[in-house]
């Protein structure tokens, strides 16, 4: 894919060695990774990290934040003389929110360490075999990638986990880690590792040749915001902020900032020749990303969605699309529908063998899948050239699938932060990228929520796309059409879908389950968003149509009844649980 923006807007006018990185590592970055020059964020942050400062990094999605923190760690570990050994245990800890991100960082680390075989990479994460992890920790892991829950588990229960030499703690996607409700776990981890600013207690006595090394913590995300403030305050000492405005992000300790909109200092970096995208309360989005929305009445959502997908794949021979849904059930239903639905608009004869509606490969990824399946999907989608990935927000953060050309947010993302991360799966490293957000007419105010962060979307020409389809060999003109939902193409497609589902009982059951969890997820919007996504405004018959169901299924399934009972009990005992959003997010999203 051709770069959509000029190189100088992505890369700094210097080399990795100019930043102070060790020459073998620079060779490795060039030869093994194909990185000729550092990105702007790398040029600004690497020297500061090399200098041993605590750092807070805020830069747009897909700008190379992973290497920003890994390269300086490898640089320092490589320089220890005599060489570090496995028995020295863990020197660096990278905390990430999801299984997939854990694997991704681990893979990058493996590549970077190719010539440094004595520096051992490793990971621990929820869902993996604890005993195998224990064995690996016992042998020693120099740079450990971890999800917070499993790390805490090992810190408490794996006595052979050696971390007395720990020097770096990195929080990649720091805000997401907290969003997922890991705040308490993180505080406990910091305490156990003796890495809180004050009053920290370490469980292991440091008495090695590395004990004089100062601790260094680093927080990164494309959307660092006030939520991270507390974590930053307890974990960072005198931090340097890269790409962040300290007026919007006030920290107690003295702060040096680099690359923020009102930066007046180029600090210790040798090549801050460009500032990062501004972050004056606005989110950093890739400048070349084309962002659009499509306004669709609820009952026509599914048919418009399928039509747009068909249009995308018919018009480009190589296409990778990621689609976001609000629930695991919705992913499962749409995945099965897209994989099985057969229909051709050009044959009237019902008995003819019909071709598949979508001919590309379809993948799905969500938190209710087996870890092994998640891993297989993750790796397979990476290498495909023509494919669809249907996912929940488990895919929204940090994942770097090459050449994703389009992001569709079929279910709205909730907070603007999530919007930014979801669209950030495309338009990475200056490549082209498009995003499309589905909104119902009643939800259009959501655009103003995005505007508050300077995120503007233009309208997608949906009628033009629909007019391009042929029904029985004829173009489907909408000139006389008053409302989108009456477009002949959509009406015919909806009928075909409903009749298809009528004959596919398994799929119909999936549709019913998806319908119920979709409504529950819709009702779970909080705060300001509750005003925009009003569950009472939903016409449930229309919602049913959007799952290709002729009739509205009952919302009162057995699971729902149990949940209601639990909710009422909670209310009696003093209101909703404190982190309602988190529990709902865990239940429906990931
Ligand atoms: N200096 C570089 N030159 C060329 N490509 C690079 C360079 N640094 C990183 N990349 C590539 O850029 C892509 C994005 O990097 P990375 O995933 O670290 O971005 P990110 O800023 O962490 O994104 P997100 O905010 O979505 O997590 C990756 O494919 C990575 O290999």
Automatic annotation (TrEMBL):
Domain DEAD-box RNA helicase Q, first and last residues per copy: 14-43
Keywords: ATP-binding, Helicase, Hydrolase, Nucleotide-binding, RNA-binding
Residue ranges of the motif Q motif: 14-43
Biased composition (Basic residues): 565-583
InterPro entries: DEAD/DEAH_box_helicase_dom, Helicase_ATP-bd, Helicase_C-like, P-loop_NTPase, RNA_helicase_DEAD_Q_motif, SPB4-like_CTE
Catalysed conversion reaction: ATP + H2O = ADP + phosphate + H(+)
SUPFAM superfamilies linked to this entry: P-loop containing nucleoside triphosphate hydrolases
GO terms assigned for molecular function: ATP binding; hydrolase activity; RNA binding; RNA helicase activity
Positions of the UniProt region annotated as Disordered: 255-281, 560-590
Start and end residues of each Helicase C-terminal domain: 308-469
Enzyme Commission number(s) of this protein: 3.6.4.13
Top-level EC class as recorded in UniProt: hydrolase
Thylakoid in keyword set: no
Pfam families associated with the record: CTE_SPB4, DEAD, Helicase_C
Segments forming domain Helicase ATP-binding: 46-242
Keyword Nucleotide-binding: yes
Domain notes: The Q motif is unique to and characteristic of the DEAD box family of RNA helicases and controls ATP binding and hydrolysis.
Described purpose of this protein according to its UniProt entry: RNA helicase.
Family: Belongs to the DEAD box helicase family.
Identification of the protein by name: ATP-dependent RNA helicase
Source organism of the structure: Kalanchoe fedtschenkoi
């Amino acid at each position: 894919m051709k770069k959509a923006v000029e190189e100088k807007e992505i890369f700094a006018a210097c080399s990795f060695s100019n930043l102070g990185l060790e020459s073998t590592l620079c060779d490795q970055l060039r030869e093994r990774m194909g990185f000729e020059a550092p990105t702007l964020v790398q040029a600004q942050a690497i020297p500061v990290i090399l200098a041993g400062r605590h750092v807070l990094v805020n830069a747009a999605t897909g700008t190379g934040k992973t290497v920003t923190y890994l390269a300086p760690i490898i640089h320092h570990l490589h320089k220890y003389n005599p060489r570090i050994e496995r028995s020295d245990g863990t020197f660096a800890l990278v905390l990430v929110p999801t299984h997939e991100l854990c694997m991704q960082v681990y893979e990058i680390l493996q590549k970077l360490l190719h010539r440094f075989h004595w520096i051992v990479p490793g990971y621990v994460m929820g869902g993996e075999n604890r005993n195998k992890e224990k064995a690996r920790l016992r042998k020693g892991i120099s740079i450990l990638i971890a999800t917070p829950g499993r790390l805490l588990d090992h810190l408490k229960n794996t006595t052979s986990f050696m971390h007395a030499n720990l020097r770096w703690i990195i929080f990649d996607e720091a805000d997401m880690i907290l969003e997922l409700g890991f705040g308490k776990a993180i505080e406990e981890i910091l305490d156990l590792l003796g890495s809180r600013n004050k009053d920290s207690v370490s469980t292991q006595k440091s008495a090695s040749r590395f004990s004089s090394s100062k601790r260094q913590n680093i927080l990164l995300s494309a959307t660092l915001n006030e939520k991270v403030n507390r974590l930053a305050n307890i974990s960072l000492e005198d931090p340097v902020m890269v790409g962040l405005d300290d007026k919007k992000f006030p920290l107690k300790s003295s702060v040096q900032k680099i690359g923020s909109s009102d930066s007046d200092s180029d600090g210790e970096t040798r090549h801050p020749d460009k500032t990062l995208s501004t972050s004056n309360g606005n989110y950093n989005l890739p400048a070349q990303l084309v962002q659009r929305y499509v306004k669709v009445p609820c009952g026509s959502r599914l048919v418009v969605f399928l039509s747009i997908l068909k249009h995308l794949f018919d018009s480009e021979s190589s296409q990778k699309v990621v689609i976001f849904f609000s629930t695991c059930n919705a992913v499962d239903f749409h995945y099965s529908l897209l994989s099985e639905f057969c229909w051709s608009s050009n044959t009237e004869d019902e008995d003819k063998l019909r071709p598949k509606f979508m001919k590309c490969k379809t993948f799905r990824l969500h938190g209710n899948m087996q870890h092994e399946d998640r891993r297989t999907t993750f790796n397979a989608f990476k290498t495909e050239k023509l494919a669809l990935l249907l996912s929940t927000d488990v895919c929204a953060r940090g994942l770097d699938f090459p050449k994703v050309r389009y992001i569709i947010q079929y279910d709205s993302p909730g907070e603007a932060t999530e919007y930014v991360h979801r669209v950030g799966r495309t338009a990475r490293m200056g490549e082209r990228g498009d995003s499309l957000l589905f909104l119902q007419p009643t939800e259009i105010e959501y655009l103003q929520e995005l505007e508050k962060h300077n995120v503007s979307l233009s309208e997608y020409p949906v009628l033009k796309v629909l007019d391009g389809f042929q029904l029985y060999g004829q173009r489907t003109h909408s000139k006389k059409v008053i409302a989108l939902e009456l477009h002949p193409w959509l009406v015919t497609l909806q009928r075909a879908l409903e009749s298809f589902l009528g004959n596919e009982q398994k799929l119909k059951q999936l549709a019913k389950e998806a319908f119920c969890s979709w409504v529950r997820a819709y009702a779970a919007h909080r705060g300001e968003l509750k005003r925009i996504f009003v569950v009472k405004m939903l016409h449930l018959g229309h919602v049913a149509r959007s799952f290709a169901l002729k009739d509205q299924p009952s919302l009162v399934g057995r699971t729902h009844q149990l949940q209601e009972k639990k909710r009422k009990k909670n209310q009696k005992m003093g209101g909703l649980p404190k982190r309602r959003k988190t529990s709902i997010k865990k239940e429906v999203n990931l």
